[in-house]
Structures are given as C-alpha cells and as structure tokens.
Backbone:
C-alpha cells in the first residue's frame, strides 16, 4: 500500500484545463499530469454533485447508493415533503467507513452528504454545512478546536451560505462578480491550509478532499473560461473578470503544488472531478409545460415568472411546492438540480398503481417529442425512467423520469408563460465528462488513457491502498494504471482485512440498544 | 441479521437526548430566550431556530438514535399544513414513537419464518 490522496476538483474539465495548460496558467498540474496518467471520467447518468461524488467514494451508481440529489422527497397524502439528504441516506459503505473498519486512518474534507459525520477512524469535516453548524459537524468534535488554532482560520470560508452559493447559478450584477471570485480564492486557501495541516501532521493513510471553486466559477463565468466563447475584444469589465478567473486558476495551481508537496513524494495522488462543464443556452420550464398539458395545476397564488425566471433557489422550491394544487396535479418537477419529473402516486389524487406504467410511458414519449424552438432539433437527448437511469435497490427514491437536455442544461421549476426561453448569454452547466489524473510512486506513466467511469475511482483508490473492496462495486481498477511489484505487505493486509471484516460483522449487528448508546456517546450525548 | 429483538430506548432518555441536542445546537447563538432549555421550549420562538437548523437537529437526532428514513412530514406537515413551531417534548415524542415502531417491526421480523414478511 501507499499513502493515498484524492484531490477532488468539483466540476473540473479538460476543456478549460487544457487551455490553461497551453497558456502556462497551471504549470504544476500540467507537469504532474504529464508525468502520470490521465483520462476523461464519465460522471453519473445525470451529472450532479451529490450523486456523482457519492458514486466516486462508494464505487456504486446512484440506484445502489441512494443519493440522486441534494434533497429527497416523499409523497404524502396532502402534498410533497422534501428534506436534505444526510450521510445516513447513503445506503452503502463509503471509502472512509470501509478503510476505518480495516484499521486505516482517514480524513475526508468538504464532501457533500457527509453530515452528520460518520464515526470514522480519523477526521471528517463535511461540506455544504452552514457556518452556524460547522462546529458540531466536525468529527471528532475536538478537531474543531484544532482547526480554530490554525493560522488565519476563518469558519466563514470553510462553511457554506446556501443563499450566497445559489448566486453561482444565478445572474449576478457586474459589480458582484469580483467579490464572488475573490471569495472563492480565499475559500480555497482556507481549505488548502487545513488540508496541508492534515497531511503534514501525522498524515492519514487516506485523505480525500474537495475544492469546489472551479464549479462555482464555471457556472458563473463560463463564457470567460471556455476558449471558444471567450470574447476576443473584451470590454474593460470583461477583461477584468477574465483576469480574475485566471488569477483563481493560477492560485489553485499553487495550492495544489503546496498540497502535493505537503503529502510527500511517497504519496500517490489522484485528482478527479465529479463532472465536466460546458455551455447551456436554453431553459426548459418543466412545470409550465406540465401545466400546459394538463398534468399540473397551479393553485392560483402564483404569477408569471418575469424576466429573472432562470433563477434557482431554495425559496423557489418552497414557493413552487406551495403554489401547486396537489389535489389536481399528476406530475411535477420539484427542483432544478435533479432534472427530474415526479409522478403523483395516489389513488385519490394522482396516478394509481395500475395506471402508472402507461402514464409514465406516455409522458416520456411526449417529452421526447419536444423540439427546441430556437434550433428545430429535439430538445432532449434522453428521457429516462428511474429503472433506465438508476437501476438498483434504491431506484424508487429517484424521480420517475430524468430529463437529459441536449445542451445538458438544468430545468426550471418556475411558473412561466413560455415553455422555452433563450438565456441572454451562455451559462455554465454540468457536462458528463470530468477529469481523472493519477501520479506518484507506482503509477504507470501512461499519459492519456481511455475514459474511465466515476465508479472506477473507489476501486482504484482501494487498489492503491492495498485493500479489498467491501461488498460489490460497479467500477473496476484498470490494472495498467499501477506499475507495482508484488507487494507481500499489501497481500497480508488483504488477508488481515477479511478477518477484520468478519470481526466487524458481529459488531455491526450487535444489540440495538448498545448500538444506540454507543452512537450517543460518540456524538457527545451521554445518558444519565 | 440480528435475530435478537431490539430493546427500545426509554422516552425519558430520548427527551434528554433531544434537549441535549437542542442545547448543543443553540450554544453560542445570540438569542433573547434566557430561560433554560426545557421540554416545553419551542424551537422557533424560544430557541431561535431557522428551518435549516431544524433540518440539522433532526438529522443529528436521527443519526445518534439510529432511526433513518423517518416520515418527518408527520411531524412538520401534519394534514398537509406546515407547523409554525414545535416543542422539544413533541419532538421527543415523535422519536420515541418511531423508535417503538421500529422495535416492533424488528421484533415481528425476528419471529417470522425465513423469507416471510410479517403482516400488520
């Protein structure tokens, strides 16, 4: 085994990185990539952050890990109830839980769906946590005190203000771009500072972390980053924003160099993104279309979406739920991120079990027949049932239909007088092709490799650590990636692991009360 | 699977857990409410919780009580109407009820012949 680090760059794509390599903006990553192996990394069917990162750290597709979105919904008799996905909604073992069970020390930093943190043999600082909750989100709780003592520590930059973050997928005023980009540079610096500390002070066997600014900048500034779209004669403001974007990537490159240096030459480094990026130009108003077709009824409280109808926000989801007449609605889109349409399942006010398959198939065909009014081409590349998109034990938690637009855009749930609207300018959206780069001792200098699947990453990381996967994984490790001599130590570790797992089995299914009490103790609740 | 029937945690223990979690959640917040946290304390008007705080609290309690996939709509949206506020005692009652239901389900499974589901 070798100490192993997974560097997650949310949304990173070779479309942008290659152009930055050519212009010399990211010399460290270019050199690192040139010495190792790299490939495109195909994301989940619908490339979305929580589903894709969870696939990366479990080796399972969403139908088998149970995470399809930031939220999940439950149909109640009176309407829809939705809530945030939590760590316990992941229905299969994560890398850090597997490695912990085998006695390895781990650190996971800034991953989505990591709250509440699992008790692991190491450190967890979950991502997507509000500053109000960061201190109780960290595992072990005492590590937050360690974090606070780090030079320059600022909890604001290690947490997430959902309203501020939503700006990255909304339009900002021109004068709001600069502070937004600067904020993300500082945010990466804060995470990098913490990561360097973790790696330099008795480093764990496995460290995984995500730097998420790439995704945020690309949503907002895609037209300045895509070499095809970048203005050739920029205005003064555009030139300033382009320069700031390049500053971000130069700083990111420096932070990556510092992190890899802190990890040491004996450490294997894997860089991966959860999805790629590209441009989207057209918005589809899913609920407006469903209303037009008679499948959805507004309750009369909502008006037209107005000029900013491409906005996406939690408040919007809330208002849409409240603005739908659930007794007269058969199908609806709950939120934009999962690109899903749910079918109201109710004998009284929805589609009965007997009629479900036929209704869904008809809806699927109607959607596939839609054409983009601006191009005349079919609007969707695919419209998939939950079984087609996410086969697996937990596919019932997925939307009934998942819509994949030709330009990979996200749908809008808002009320609108139009079904399609052209954006004023191209916007950054998630494309399926992410990145994978590997380097360090024992990594073959393969250069470009055939594309990998996102579920391949977990088996690759386990291979690097000399650990046998716990349970089934849908990905696999390309053996050519490793240039390893037979390693008795790793072989012994695998044998030991199997024994360790058997021992754990008894613990896992131990008396429930004991388990509850243990969890209470682990999370700081001590019963009298 | 464990064939032993689970022994449900007591209602008092769950209430203590809920109150501890609420105290932990609100620690360090600026709030007008000066009284000590009690079973009748209301999440929003007394403790100053926002909706995200309630989600976090429910998540932490679910995790530490090992009760996942709970129908929180029964607690937060009974009869399709959002509740304006919630006492800690009500929250504890909900978790106690669900822990009891889970214990009963697992007990029923434990007595079922292999491959058969219990009837309810």
Residues:
């Amino acid at each position: 085994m070798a100490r192993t680090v997974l560097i997650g760059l949310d949304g990173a794509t070779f479309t942008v990185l290659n152009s930055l390599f050519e212009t010399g903006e990211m010399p460290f990553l270019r050199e690192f990539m040139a010495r190792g192996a790299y490939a495109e990394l195909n994301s989940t069917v619908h490339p979305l952050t929580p589903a894709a990162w969870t696939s990366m750290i479990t080796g399972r597709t969403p139908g088998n890990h149970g995470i399809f979105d930031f939220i999940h919904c439950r149909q109640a008799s009176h309407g829809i109830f939705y809530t945030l996905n939590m760590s316990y909604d992941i229905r299969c073992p994560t890398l850090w839980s597997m490695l912990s069970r085998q006695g390895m020390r781990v650190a996971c930093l800034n991953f989505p769906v990591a709250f509440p943190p699992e008790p692991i043999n190491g450190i967890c600082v979950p991502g997507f946590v509000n500053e109000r909750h960061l201190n109780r989100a960290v595992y072990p709780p005492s590590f937050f005190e360690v974090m606070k003592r780090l030079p320059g520590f600022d909890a604001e930059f290690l947490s997430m203000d959902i309203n501020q973050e939503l700006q990255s997928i909304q339009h900002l005023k021109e004068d709001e771009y600069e502070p937004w980009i600067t904020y993300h540079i500082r945010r990466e610096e804060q995470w990098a500072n913490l990561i360097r500390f973790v790696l330099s002070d008795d480093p764990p066997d496995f460290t995984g972390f995500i730097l998420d600014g790439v995704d945020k900048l690309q949503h907002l500034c895609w037209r300045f980053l895509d070499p095809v779209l970048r203005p050739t004669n920029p205005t003064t403001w555009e030139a300033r924003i382009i320069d700031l974007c390049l500053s971000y990537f130069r700083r990111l490159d420096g932070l990556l160099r510092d992190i890899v240096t802190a990890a040491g030459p004996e450490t294997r480094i894997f860089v991966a993104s959860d999805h790629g990026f590209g441009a989207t130009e057209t918005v589809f108003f899913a609920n407006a279309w469903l209303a037009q077709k008679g499948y959805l009824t507004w309750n009369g409280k909502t008006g037209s979406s107005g000029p900013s109808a491409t906005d996406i926000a939690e408040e919007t989801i809330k208002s849409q739920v409240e603005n739908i007449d659930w007794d007269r609605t058969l199908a609806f889109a709950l939120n934009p991120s999962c690109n899903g349409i749910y079918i109201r399942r109710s004998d009284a006010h929805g589609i009965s079990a007997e009629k479900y398959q036929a209704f869904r198939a008809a809806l699927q065909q109607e959607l596939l027949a839609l054409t983009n009014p601006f191009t005349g081409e079919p609007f969707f590349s695919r419209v998939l049932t939950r079984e087609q998109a996410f086969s697996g034990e937990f596919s019932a938690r997925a939307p009934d239909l998942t819509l994949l637009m030709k330009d990979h855009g996200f749908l809008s749930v808002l009320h609108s007088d139009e079904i399609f609207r052209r954006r004023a300018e191209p916007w950054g959206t998630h494309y399926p092709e992410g990145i994978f780069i590997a380097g360090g001792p024992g990594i073959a200098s393969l250069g470009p490799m055939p594309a990998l699947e996102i579920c391949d990453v977990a088996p690759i990381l386990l291979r690097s650590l000399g650990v046998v996967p716990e349970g089934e994984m849908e990905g696999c490790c390309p053996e050519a990636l490793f240039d390893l001599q037979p390693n008795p130590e790793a072989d012994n570790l695998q044998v030991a692991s199997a024994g360790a797992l058997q021992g754990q089995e008894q613990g896992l299914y131990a008396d429930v009360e004991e388990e509850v009490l243990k969890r209470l103790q682990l999370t700081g609740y001590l019963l009298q | 699977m464990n064939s032993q029937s689970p022994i449900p945690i007591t209602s008092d223990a769950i209430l203590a857990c809920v109150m501890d979690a609420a105290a932990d959640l609100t620690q360090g917040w600026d709030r007008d409410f000066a009284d000590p946290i009690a079973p009748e304390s209301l999440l929003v008007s007394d403790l100053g919780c926002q909706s995200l705080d309630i989600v976090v609290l429910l998540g932490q309690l679910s995790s530490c009580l090992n009760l996942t996939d709970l129908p929180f709509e029964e607690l937060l949206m009974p009869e399709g109407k959002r509740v304006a506020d919630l006492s800690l005692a009500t929250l504890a009652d909900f978790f106690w009820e669900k822990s009891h239901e889970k214990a009963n389900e697992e007990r029923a499974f434990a007595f079922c012949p292999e491959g058969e589901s219990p009837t309810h």
Q: What stands out?
A: Chain B touches chain A through 39 residues (CB under 8 Å). Residues 71 and 114 of chain B are 28 Å apart (CA to CA).
